[in-house]
Amino acid sequence: MQTPAAQNDTGAAPTAAPIGKSRRQERERRLRRRSAIIATVSTLAVLVMLVVLIPMAPGWEKVQKSFFNWPILIEVFPRLLSAFLVDLMIFAWSAPIIALLGLVIALCRDARGPALFPLRLFAILYNDIFRGVPVILVVYLVGFGIPGLGLPRPWNSPYLWGTVALVLSYSAYVAEVYRAGIESIHESQRSAAKSLGLSHAHIMRYVILPQAIRRVIPANMNNLISLQKDVALLSFIGPVEILRQAGVEKSLLANFTPYLAASIIFLAVTIPATRFADHLIAKQNKARS
Fold first, then answer.
1. Residues 6+ positions from 77 with CB-CB distance below 8 Å
2. The pLDDT of residue 149
3. What is the pTM of this model?
4. Which of 66, 212, 233, 286 could form a cystine bridge with 182, CB 3.0-4.6 A?
5. Contact 184, 162 (CB under 8 A)
6. Stretch 247-272: mean pLDDT, rounded?
7. pLDDT per position as a tens digit, 170-204
8. pLDDT value at position 189?
9. CA 127, CA 176: separation in Å to the nearest integer?
10. Given this model, what pLDDT does residue 14 score?
11. Can you tell me the distance from the alpha carbon of 78 to that of 210, in angstroms, rounded to the nearest whole number?
12. What is the pLDDT of residues 104-158, one digit of tens each?
């Protein structure tokens, strides 16, 4: 005898699965809400402890006067913001050069065939050298060494050679990111493209690079954030950017608050960029899962 339509072929009520799913979702929502409440309470507790305990330190008044002087911060902030425009200009013309040179080096590293081995060797040596030497040392060697040759203006400009130092260092890191993206493309796609009669150059241009570049955008965003901060290293060879200007203000006012103001300006730029990079990474991971 057939059962009523309230049951399916297995004898289970058709509403059982949706009910179970809704209960599981409700339980997950409660767990997320509970976790958020615990995280908020613990964070507030830590902040309250810091606000209460730090001023109790015996040297807090001197530290507050030297590093957290509000009138000095208001005074120097516009001048530091103006100097920060120099950082942005150097970053603006360095970033595209780094992206292009890094891609060229990655393509040299991926070069195949015995005749192209010198290109591959060059890319390996380039990456090993400029990833192994700290950026500040490259800035010193290029920024002081090349102008020391007695070149005429404008070829002895610290802005020019500081940019060259950043490009040399960061191109090595970007090239490795590109190489990781290129190698992440399955070899079967190259084989399929070859079977269609495409040359190696056409395979790279139309098949490999469009996918590889799209995959490494989040990782290269992190490199751009680091580059934006490391532009401040050029202050050691002459350009009056935000770090050098903060040092000047510190000397004139005998106070370290200008460094705090410079940090605030950097954070105002890097934190949104970092969150955007994290968003891209999370979106990419979600698409792959």
1. 261, 265
2. 83
3. 0.78
4. 212
5. no
6. 91
7. 999 999 999 999 888 888 888 888 888 888 888 88
8. 87
9. 8
10. 52
11. 43
12. 999 998 887 788 888 899 999 999 999 999 999 999 999 888 888 887 877 888 8
Crossing angle of the two packed helices 217-230 and 257-288, in degrees rounded to 10: 170
pLDDT of residue 214: 86
Cα atoms in the Cβ-side hemisphere of radius 13 Å centred on 115: 0
CA torsion sign, 214 to 230 to 137 to 158? Answer: positive
Positive or negative torsion for Cα 138, 144, 149, 150: positive
Q: DSSP labels for the chain?
A: -PPPTTS-TTS--TTHHHHHHHHHHHHHHHHHHHHHHHHHHHHHHHHHHHHHHGGGSTTHHHHHHHH--HHHHHHHHHHHHHHHHHHHHHHHHHHHHHHHHHHHHHHHHT--SGGGHHHHHHHHHHHHHHHHS-HHHHHHHHHHHTGGG-PPTTTT-HHHHHHHHHHHHHHHHHHHHHHHHHHTS-HHHHHHHHHTT--HHHHIIIIIHHHHHHHTHHHHHHHHHHHHHHGGGGGGGS---HHHHHHHHHHHHT-SHHHHHHHHHHHHHHHHHHHHHHHHHHHHHHHH-
For residue 227 the two structure tokens come to: 């580059």
Q: Write the single-letter amino acid at 221.
A: M
